[in-house]
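Student: I would love a firmer grasp of how sequence relates to backbone shape in proteins. I am handing you a single protein, as its sequence and its fold in token form. I am told such tokens are a discrete way to write the fold. I hope you can help me see how the letters and the tokens relate. Take your time, and here it is.
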Amino acid sequence: MALPPDTRVMPFDAEAIAEASRLILAGQPVAMPTETVYGLAADATSAVAVAHIYTAKGRPSFNPLIVHVPDFGAAERIGNFDERARALAIEHWPGPLTLVVPLRDGAGIASLVTAGLATVALRVPAHPAMQALLKACARPLAAPSANASGLISPTRASHVLASLGGRIPLVVDGGATQRGIESTIVAATGGPLRLLRRGPIEINDLAIEQPAGIEAPGQLASHYAPSKPLRLDATEARDGETLIGYGPVAGDLSLSGTGDPVEAAAKLFDLLHRADAMPKPKIAIAPILGNGIAAAIRDRLKRAAAPRPSTAPDSSS
């Protein structure tokens, strides 16, 4: 789905929310104010919609995205909360706290949102514009910061336009954001709670096990790897390989018969899981040529194909 060449800016009101909801339900991303920074929101249940986030941002790798929901009840339908995570949610939501929890079976979240992990990052935002959009769409929304990858996070609509103008259809202008920095992230995935990112909310240090170093999904070279050996840039299958095709390379499975990188990004993690579950002991994947989102796919596949040391720590959260 092609995005329009011009980016509209609408002040936050009922008309803007109606237009933003229409665009999101049509599979397009929209920049929205939250209390932290402006987010680039898309339907978290649609892998193609989420792929448009990566296309617009030029994001270099498929890191997990935060899923925004209107209330704790909606969050519980997506993630499994233990008593500690539930207590933090009740105390700090709505607000700038993101909780990483195990993904509930059948939650309906696109695997591109979680980068194929068994966990999901959830937040209930406090900003009235984002709350209004969540209720209008009646969908969970994936929403990383609304800026081109590597640039400063946006706290005003003008910041969004400076980096994403012409790449997205709409910016809803809610004025300057209140907090100005990204949300605090806490992982509650079994064992002690872990502080993954500092932010506006301070959590009692006694309740948090501080990570020994930087801890975030995607840091290990071999992260998101299937259990089977993965061979890249394959034009045909060798003995014992399930071939994932792309473009002119057909394969047993195909990311995109037409060589569409957006379609390929939407299918990437699902097909890796499918190939991992098939009888053949190895996986091969066709060349993914091009820049932008195609380069992001290659980055993720390079990580997936990297040799895994036997003592590698678990960084799945």
